[in-house]
Amino acid sequence: MTSQENPAAERFHHLHREGLLVLPNAWDAGSARLIESLGAKAIATTSAGVAWSHGFPDGDTLPWPLLRATVADIARAVRVPVSADVEGGYSNDPAAVGETVAAVIEAGAIGINIEDGAGAPELLCAKIERAKSAGERLGVKLFVNARTDVYLRGLATNERRVEETLARAERYRSAGADGIFVPGLADPEEIRAVAQGSPLPLNVMAWRGLPSAAELEALGVRRLSAGAGIIQAAYAKTRRLAAAFLETGASDAVTSESKSYPEINALLTDRR
């Protein structure tokens, strides 16, 4: 199979060409299947959620075989395309990053997010090149969503952050990236400037004060991610329910808002 013959990969690329792709990020097979059942056109993982669900902090600390296993479980549970957040690739050695990406592709992913963080843009360029090569080698037209942390980490002044974001986007595009992800970008005029200033589909992340989905689409955004927002909310609710149960032992609070056991079991029944 050539890279042009992978239907899931081609479908995922197509989802970025028009309209707004909304991704409520998943962290395991169960959450992925639930999100798919609600009409999601693709599944993308949240690195924080995957790390936390395995008992590790976010930030390139997760042993990458656990990510590979998680992607394999998700790919088994859903039928839509799967994209994996590989953080910074779990290494500063581009060759090692390429092998990690290859393992994730073999597990069933047809897209990745990979970030620059506090690192130099040229390092991410080298990682992107290795990631794309891994996809070509495995016959997958891998969608590489290059995340830049210019806004998230304050890597440029407010006056220069659009300019710096666009400069990095161009470097990442030249290295082979298929999309640009700018978490923390929330101002409508700056969103418009980034969307119009780069040929790469723009991905923004759920953020306090972010314009509505309809407004984002009109501004030129092609992908909206929940990031860790949903699992953070899930942890907050778990904390509240568990604390109340520990304090009182009362069953009503735990059971009143629960999804039914048969419904969850049916959702996760193997459909293949």
What shape does the CA trace take? globular
Order of helices and strands: HEHEHHEHEHEHEHEHEHHH
Number of domains: 1
How many beta-strand elements? 8
Largest sheet: 8 strands, parallel
What quaternary form is this?
A: single chain
Between the first and last Cα atoms, what is the distance in angstroms? 22 Å
CATH superfamily: Phosphoenolpyruvate-binding domains
Percent of residues in β-strands: 5-15%
Determine and state the CATH class: Alpha Beta
Q: Report mean pLDDT, rounded to a whole number.
A: 95
Examine the coordinates and then state which fold CATH places here, giving the name of the CATH topology: TIM Barrel
Q: How many helical stretches?
A: 12
Global Rg: 19 Å
Give the structural class. Answer: alpha/beta
CATH architecture annotation name: Alpha-Beta Barrel
Q: Order of strands across the biggest sheet?
A: 1-8-7-6-5-4-3-2
**Unreliable spans:** none
Give the proportion of residues in helices.
Answer: 40-55%
